[in-house]
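REVIEWER CHECKLIST
Item 1: Sequence provided? yes
Item 2: Single chain? yes
Item 3: Sequence as submitted:
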Amino acid sequence: MHETMAPMVKSRCATLLALVSLLGTTAARGQTQPPPATTAPPADPSGVAPPAASPPPTPPAAFQPITPLSPTLAPESAPAPPLLLTQRTTPEQQAPRPEPLHQKTWFWAVIGVAFATSFVITWMLLRDKASEPPDTTFGNMNAF
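Item 4: Structure as written out by the authors:
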């Protein structure tokens, strides 16, 4: 049992070591200030010596304080147009909406007449068939 555990422990250690090294390299890339310059400037091939002293470098723009603009630099606002008041007229009366078809009385009267007519016709046809013997070649015979 211990022999099968050894490769697993080694792989876990290797994985942990890889993660730690990855974390170290990403933390090094996350620096906010550039590293100090340690290399000398390249020699000029023309043979002319560079100036002895150079002015000190200015700090990056991100570290300089930002000063707000003075109000005198703001653009002049254009004057607003004068306000004109007019008297309102009464709105025109809109035409009333037409009554929907299903709310009209004659619509329901037609539906009622059609229903009553179909009921009477169906009742008359079925009533006549009940008193007559079936229309078969066997006539009015009892099965049992």
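Item 5: Key structural point noted by reviewer: The longest helix spans residues 2-29.
Item 6: Recommendation: ____
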